[in-house]
Amino acid sequence: MGKIKIVTDSSITIEPELVKELDITVVPLSVMIDGVLYSDADLKEEGKFLNMMRHSKNLPKTSQPPVGLFAEVYENLAKDGAEHIVSIHLTHTLSGTIDAARQGANLAGADVTVVDSTFTDQCQKFQVVQAAKLAKEGASLDEVLAKIEEVRQKSELFIGVSTLENLVKGGRIGRVTGLLSSLLNIRVVMEMKDHVLVPVVKGRGVKTFNKWLDNFIEHAKERAVAEIGISYCGTVEMANGFKEKLEVLGAPIAVLETGSIIQTHTGENAFAVMVRYE
User: Fold this and answer.
1) Helix axes 141-153, 121-136, angle to 10 degrees
2) Quick one: which of 195, 157, 189 has its CA closest to 276?
């Protein structure tokens, strides 16, 4: 069986121990805060980036990894014995990362398959982890790619924001259809569908989020749930409250702080609920 290595980017929200256990390579994006460039890899301490964003004069700016970094990563993996590399990244509508990965693959002397997850965060994790598990078991490239596609089709990502300000300033509001940029201080829940954020619920007050969650649980009860991811920007209390409600679905739930890349665009007091069905 060919030796397959799995690569992803730091927009993924994943437990560090899983990265180590499954030998996943994570290529970091960068964040510029008031003129200083930081690697996303250096901002993983709980609450560190959020504190920096609160005190920054301007909204931080994110940037994809350089093409040369991808080429270097792929070349090094090939030198270490990887026969195939599967590189899974956040949707092209939110970042140019996947283009940089493709260009890096063209430069590298390695066999690389670049995959658009169509998601980000823990929905990206679902694909990466299942692919890495299969790769570790010695599965073929076709089997790994088929599993990624199966997981993608059986996943849903919902994101709730308490303000649209960061999405507007970061230039992502144009990709959120059906929302007026003037309505900055409303709470909105959106679903990522076919690379696009589509509003599901909007209103004022935390009740907007709770009402959406109750409806989501009723919808999810109709299917067998394999796993759930809850990511948050801000305090963990709301995420833990969601977890208590979601436990009725009988699936393992991971509650994790999302990274600097996602936090930059969602702003504080945002969350994401992601589900993978059997």
Assistant:
1) 150
2) 157
Q: Are 159 and 192 in contact (CB under 8 A)?
A: yes
**Chain position carrying tokens 């996303």:** 40
Q: What are the pLDDT digits (tens) for 67-105?
A: 999 999 999 999 999 999 999 999 998 899 999 999 999
Secondary structure class of 20 (helix, strand, coil): helix
Q: How far is CA 20 from CA 15, 16, 45, in A?
A: 9, 6, 17
Dihedral (CA of 123, 240, 187, 184) sign: negative
Ranges of beta strands (E only) in the chain are 4-9, 25-27, 30-33, 36-39, 61-63, 84-89, 112-116, 155-161, 187-193, 196-203, 225-233, 253-257, 270-277
What's this model's pTM, rounded to 2 decimal places? 0.92
Give buried/exposed letters for 204-216 (b at 16+ CB in 10 A, else e). eeeebbeebbeeb
Task: Tell me the torsion sign for CA atoms 151, 90, 157, 261.
Answer: positive
Radius of gyration of the chain (CA): 18
- Residue 160 and residue 209: Cα distance in Å, rounded? 7
Measured distance CA(132)–CA(17) in Å, rounded: 13
Q: What is the pLDDT of residues 16-25, one digit of tens each?
A: 999 999 999 9
- Asked if 167 and 233 touch (Cβ cutoff 8 Å), the reply is no
One-letter amino acid at 258 equals T
Instruction: Find the Cα–Cα–Cα–Cα dihedral 21, 26, 32, 38, rounded to 10°.
Output: 60
Q: Are 254 and 130 in contact (CB under 8 A)?
A: no
Tell which phi-psi region holds residue 84, choosing left (phi > 0), alpha (psi between -120 and 50) or beta: beta
Query: Which amino acid would we find at residue 148?
Result: I
